[in-house]
Amino acid sequence: MADCNTKPGPCIAKKTPGGQPAEKMNYSQLFESVKKAAFVVGTALLVFAAARNTITWHMQRFWGASGDFWQTTWNNIYSLFNEDEMLVGVVGTTMFTFTVFWLANSFLIFLDVTGMPSSLLRYKVQPDKNTPLAMKDLKKICLRALFNQTVVALPMSFCTCLVMKWRGCPVSGDLPTFQWVLLEIAVFTLIEELGFYYSHRLLHHPALYKYVHKIHHEWTAPVGLVSVYAHPLEHVMSNMLPPVLGPIIMGSHLATSWLWFALVLLSTTVAHSGYHFPFLPSPEAHDFHHLKFNQNYGILGVLDRLHGTDNLFRASPAYERHILLLSRVPMSVQYPDSSPKKSTKNEEKTE
Ligand SMILES: [Zn+2]
Ligand SMILES: [Zn+2]
Q1: Centroid of ligand 2 to alpha carbon of 292 (angstroms)
Q2: Quick one: pLDDT band at residue 179, thresholds 50, 70, 90?
Q3: CA 209, CA 211: separation in Å to the nearest integer?
Q4: Structural domain boundaries of the chain?
Q5: Residue 1 CA to ligand 2 centre (angstroms)
Q6: How many CB atoms lie within 10 A of CB 224?
Q7: Taking Cα atoms as reference points, which of 286, 280, 279, 281 lies closest to residue 318?
Q8: Of the ligands numbered here, which is closest to the C-alpha atom of 208?
Q9: Which neighbouring-strand residues pair with 21?
Q10: Whether the Cβ atoms of residue 199 and residue 306 lie closer than 8 Å to each other
Q11: What is d(CA 290, CA 143) in angstroms, rounded to the nearest whole number?
């Protein structure tokens, strides 16, 4: 298949496998990239606004109309750590992120190992891979994940807390308003896209790839836990640094950072899960990265559009599947891989 990456100048008059006309690549990449960023941030703001109202409403019903639920919860957490800012910053943050990550992944591990409930297997992005996930593979991923989350993450968390303290990021006192949290998370998202895209591209440099990033790419069909299956240097440089930069730059409250870290961990777990489930963000782009290696380095797709590192992806059936699944019919059924051989066979049959 011709690839716009390999040719200078505009790439025109191509058709995607789905039959849709492809874009005149280089002319509109910047505009499309900005449009994509605006769409992602705008959608995130809307979702948060909607979720906020719903969550508040439920909280008020359950906890006797207390508008201070989150403030009280945070105060209790802070007291639990003897109101020690470093303790809650290092140990508290590690415990919280660890719990969120393993709770989300325990469901995926069960599904990957047992194949139950079997009705969910039809949502697999690469249906013939990891069905079931071998126990020796699971053990290998778990060991590296645990190593990164303790031996690597704890000293990194300690350094981050020192920087946050120096930056004046509050740990106690009043929580920020919801509107401010919303704005901060939108900013964090863009900072993470910048940090992750460029650090990830750097990791694909031959000098680094062979010794560092190759480990993460042992998995051409990832599973949820693979999100933290990486060389320690990569775990710091690409998994931890881009998400902590936002809260440091914005001088955010630690509670906001916790919310943000939970979102990051859930998002990367979904991106690596190997399943395109209904009503969850599409994992197709990052799954395609694991399959093809030189496509989709970013998270949002904003910088991939700008740099044209998604050209092959956009010309593939996976791109058509890269949307929010809003029905129970799997994407692989709605947009199957079309092979020229198959269509010839079908044409022969109908003749
Ligand atoms: Zn990955
Ligand atoms: Zn990579």
Answers
A1: 9
A2: confident
A3: 6
A4: 36-83, 84-331
A5: 22
A6: 26
A7: 286
A8: 2
A9: 15
A10: no
A11: 21
